[in-house]
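This entry is listed below:
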Amino acid sequence: MGSTPKELIFEEEARAKLKEGIDILADTAEVTLGPKGKNIGIESSWGAPTITNDGNSIVKDIELKDPYANMGVSMGKEVALKIKEHSGDGTTTGIILLRALVRQGIKNIAAGASPISLKRGMEKGVEAVLNALDALATPVNEGEAIRNIATVSASGNQEIGKTISDAIEKVRKTGVITIEEGKGTSTTIEMVEGMEFDRGYLSPYFSTSGESMMVEMEGAGILITDKKISSIQEILPLLQSIASTGKGLIIIAEDIDGDALSTLVVNKLRGTLKVAAVKAPGFGDRRKAMLEDIAVLTGGTVVSEEKGMQLKDVGMEVLGQAEKIEISKDRTTIVGGMGRKEDLNTRIQQIDGEIKRATSDYDREKLEERKAKLQGGVAVIRVGAPTEVEMKQKKQVFEDCLNSTRAAQESGYVPGGGVALLRASQKLKELKLSSEEQIGVDSVYQACSAPFKQIVTNCGKDSSLYLDEVLTKGGAFGFNALTETVEDLEKAEVIDPAKTVKNCLKYAASVAGIVLISEALITDASEDEEASA
């Protein structure tokens, strides 16, 4: 059986096809940039369409019939993906920069420039701009700057900016903020003062309040085990001991079923035992780690056969304790764990070490969540909206805002509105390279004005009328798209995270360089071509 026939295109035609795909991405996403940007509707395979101005959400669903142009689309998606992964926001700016760099590069190659020298010059130019952006950055150390970053990311929505800054203020820099879809039309922030995990009671009959269907216990003992409990005989000695004290008991186990669950429910309903059972959070090794976290937080011991322990042999000495425990049908919150502070700090240090050694963003994120739960810093933003369509769009905006503010806390902020790239690119005038590499530097210089021009264009204005004025005034002066005037953008609270701006240029330039030195594209032959062969 032979291999699949292939089609090939070369040189100018190949680069033109890649540019075609990138142009389609940019043409679609660029209209969303800035506070006067528009939304894009994306068809869903089920339910209502997604209405969004998030660049990554827009470009990730674009696929073209032309396989060559679709390669360009895939390259653009890679830029969006990297920016989203490392900054969370700025994907539209990255796509616009990619197109500008590719356009300039292809034009110069057509005029006789060497692709390799051009790419080398671009790399040196980008490095100079990134260093200049670092020099422009102002550290974020107060709530007002955080609110402004979030507001800019939300296209000027003051309410969203304030909600994000309030949540960050509550949890501080090391805390975790989660964003969920709310059940009403208003957006709320709920501060979880203790450890929370997404497992609820195993039976509603455990609830202590018929109205709220919640379990609430104060000063209860907490049995923590990685075993599945099917027989009540396994825990009968412990139940008898706890019943004699009159205290409540919370059981966190891999699972509880059979006569063990039914006996616990019956004893709870009869009033002979204050008890509730919860399935352990997480899966596999992560579950074991989270159970150990709970044990450290509450001063208990995980009862595990791996440690040579049997449930039937343990007494109250293995129980953890907390000031209060609240359990709903899908969540458990432990408030005021009674574990030793020294043990807690040691556990947090262990997790810090695991974070440093983590090789995937997913593992790192889960470790950060575990650390935050132990530190007691979890704020939940529940986004409200009158319709499902608006809910999806609003939740996406909240997520982008949160990512932007986190990036600003890490790297500081720079003037927004595309001005930071304009200012930083002026450093390129000081670079003196060989003539062909200088062409690459000039390509970067031209590209750095593209986001500014697009923001002005999206306001219905001619960017050429404002560019010279902004460059002449210098500093943080730029075009404020909300007021449509040139003013000091830092005073006007129009700022961007330095990390986001840097990543937009870095990843756009990386992919642009690959496009410019691509000399051939290969795809499977179409059915029509095979038939005529």
In short: The first helix runs from residue 11 to 29.
